[in-house]
Amino acid sequence: MRRATPERLAFSALLVACFAWLVAYPLYSHNQYWQNVLFFAFLFAVMASGWNIISGYAGYVSLGQSAFVGLGGYTTGIIATRAHISPWWTIPIAAAVAALVAALLGVVVMRTRGHSFVIITIAFLLILQLVALNWASLTGGSTGTTLPLTSYPREWQNTPFYYVMLGLVLLSVLMTWAIRRTKFGTGLIAIREDEDKAGAVGINTPVYKVLGFAASAVLVGAAGGVYAYYLTFIDPTGMFNILYSVFTVLAVLLGGRATVWGPILGGFLIELLREQTNVHFGASSLNLVIFGALMAAVVLFLPRGILPTAAAWFVGRRTRGVPGVAEGALDLRPGLALAARPEERPAESSILLAADGLVKRFGGLRAVDELSFYVREGTITGLIGPNGSGKTTAFNLIDGMMRADAGEVRFEGRRIDRLPPWERAHLGLGRTFQITRLFRQMTVLENVVAPLRSFSLAQLAAGAVAGHEVERAQELLDFVGMSRFAHAAAGTLSFGQQKLVELAQVLMLDPKVILLDEPAGGINPTLIERLVEKIRELNAMGRTFVIVEHNMPLVAELCDPVVVLARGKRIAAGSAHEIQRDPLVLDAYLGEGWTVDEAVTA
Amino acid sequence: MILALEEVVCGYGGGDVLQGLDLVVERGSITCIVGPNGAGKSTVLRAVSGILRPRLGRIQLEDTDITHARPHEVLSLGIVQVPQSNGIFPQMTVRENVLMGGYPLRRDRELLKRRYAEVSELFPIVRERGPERAGNLSGGQRRMIEFARSLMVNPKLVLLDEPSLGLDPKSLKAVFDNVALMNEAGKTILLVEQNVRIGLGAATHAVVMESGRVRLYGTSREILDHPEIAELYLGGHVARDAAPA
Amino acid sequence: MTGVIQTIVLGVLLGGVYALAASGLTLVFGVMNIINVAHGAMLILAAYLTFAIWTHTGLDPILAALITTPAMFGLGWLIYQLLIRRIRQAPASTSVLLTFAIALMIEGIIGLIWKGVFRAVTPGYFNDSVKVGSIYLPTARLYACVTAIAILVLLWLLLTRTWAGRAIRASSQNPQGAMLMGVDVASVAALTFAIGVATTGAGGSLISVLYPFFPASHYQWISRLLGIIVLGGMGNLTGAVVGALLMGVAENICAVYISVQWVTAVPYVVIFAVLLLRPRGLLGARTREDVAPA
Known about the structure:
The complex is a heterotrimer of chains A (602), B (245) and C (294). Chain A is of the alpha/beta class. Chain A has 26 helices and twelve strands.
């Protein structure tokens, strides 16, 4: 919870004052030049706010944001020149078209990430520009289209556009603010941090992304419509202008990405810079040089943006001299008991999870090769084998991170091998990773709260961090002994600490079966003992475990049965006692001279 | 004494992880750093190898001050580090990966050839999978390549960051056998281990760290026998189990 | 039939030059994980330099590559030290923006020096062609393509046969690992960026005899080159060559059989198609994916 510090109150007061001034400005001043400048500032603020949703929150960096201005503008232009419809109708239509195209783009580029995504957005923008240029019968081609004048008293000049655009800025702020406070927002941030992991903890990533795309474009489309009426003349290079995309990105970086007000502030600053260079150097080559240099300077010297830098400065001033939390001491308090969920345990243990004939190839390598094994409900099943025997790949096939080339995975008798990861998570399948995959920029608490046990559209609007979830998350953090770090960024923790947080995170899903990939790797022995104890406790409450682990004493102590893999196949299965005497296992895995560790198995 | 850290203060920007650390590594020893998660064990290795720069304090290798040396300078002085994970070049072949380990020797082809032969003798996987892309190996196999590669420069001091991480018992034994072999060949080894049983079992000296400082230093036998420390940091039964086989 | 072959041959000749122009872009991406959006602008800058050399001294534009290549190498090194070096750890958006800023500055500077009008370099053989069987090979394109291939072979040898090349590849795949091997990753990055930009020197000289150009032509060039490296697999040099040849042919086919108006759309269509159907490109690397990424 953020407390109302004096700085925050001052910031809020400043915002209210600025807004009041913007509303009042045209009433006392008829300076059309400054109204025009502010109109463009609003336009950039709306574009930047939209971009912030898909790029700031969800991490999909786009250079195609002005495509939605163009789409909005041409939608209104095409309708307005053909039918006598009020702008109050054409502008919402423009918004809808932009949102729809954005959603469609989201569906089409679903698997494209990182730099490829940047490139595809450039292509998207320029191809639309080219269509507008070449499809002259619809758009007027390079000669452009002239819109009919809107019908209001001439003496109002451009002031109505000013207010409509200001309204769109307000809507943008409200939308960004609302998104940040809901599951939708945290889901988008989880996607930015690690999209595959987000799927594995139950977040329906495609729906989140497509809605994110639509949200980032809808108000920009409306703004494009208003802009077209304002200009009264539109042409392809002006409307689908890649420079405006660049200004948008720059605005968000300048103001502060993934903040509510950063893009707005950035939009204003960019317009002022643009205007100043235009005034002093004209629309000339020199203008390009100056603007390019300014842009480079912002990128180099203000990488975090103004608002985050200012916030960090205030926080730094208040907490100077207070040591960081990145130090470890053993937390030997006994973990709090996890609330037991009543679980019905069948009288006779049935098969909960089954792999049947799984095959996965990487190029010529068969990492998993006709692998079959099953996990009975209520067991702690060990999965062991030499490095490269396909254990982790088997996990990936079971939880849906990868799709098998052949074979079936069944969970509670139902085939799940064609389901996406989040649906498997919703069914009750949780997993941790060998190399932890936390959302590094989120706090530990946010990480533990992130998993979702189901999906519904209503969920998107639910509060990001509800009270009962925090309670449960705190309890789970206590359970793994990490509650002291609840508000530290996950990325600052050591490897072992991250493993513990990831365990708490997967428990948040309350899964029926938990796949643990080397839970003891990189964790100190005291915590391993505690971990063993907790796994037993959870097991007693009805959770089934599948554990990949090299720590043989731990496997022997905990797991029954144990399945042994080698070269992607199952070579043995049985109790730990049995497999430690199996000559095949000794040869492939344990090695010559292996002796059963009496101290632990006793 | 081959390596000494004095009053080292070092971190990643979000606060100091090492808070005035003093540490000595004896020539010819296998020194193992243990301690709870987040105590700063891996940070010690990063500070020594030059990836992180200490804010305060001094690091000395024999008679040379290496506090502010860059990674390649540290390497040329005979300290090689095997990272905790992801040290390989995935698009290069296993052979090229191991050869890259000899980058500092690139001007001496003969020496390079000889070292490569020695290393592939020690690690059969290098010979067996030489032409394969290293990216197609599993986590544990990659680790073996990293070990093989680090020996190409014939270092004085080898820094191992959790060598047991992700290794199956068979490879683990091979790795620690090699740690012992390297040591017999005159190389000093400084390793960080969570697997205290194996780490202290193989080590001659041990360092117990807590909150960025050294809590205790001694021979591994002394540490194992220290009742309070064993109970607090190593887990109750480890001392019993870790008796050298 | 001859018409089809003629179209393809012309496309291949063009593709050879495209390959050289794209090689630096893909190299810089592969090693530094940076899309140098200014690559197109640098290409145009080199074309203008060639134009200046040719008008002032009468030196053959293809031979001018001997001057433009080292000049662009120096420029690349300078840009790296002044700007790129400071954003090595930054996210993708930062490098895209910074290189976009560089592109704008270069475009502006070109406009200041040479004015915003179309220029073309027309040496004596500009309108000549060689006839092989029933196929015409325009002399300028032939010379340009042969030169481009020769430079690409040199580049390939540099990357695979020298320790500098190995250091470049190692740094591209795992900077921290390379650092631990004693590779001075910072100077390798500077070298790579400078080599990447140097290819625009020769590339720019060659394209100056193939196409007329003006300051804003760089948008079209960067789109084309991005299409090429996406098609071939980003960061993959061989991929860039294959992608460039296909792009040259595709553009020529589009111009002859569809419409000249839509030729500029070819790269965009290629980008969409490849990223949707085969995101790693034709020759993009594929390795075991179950081990955590570096």
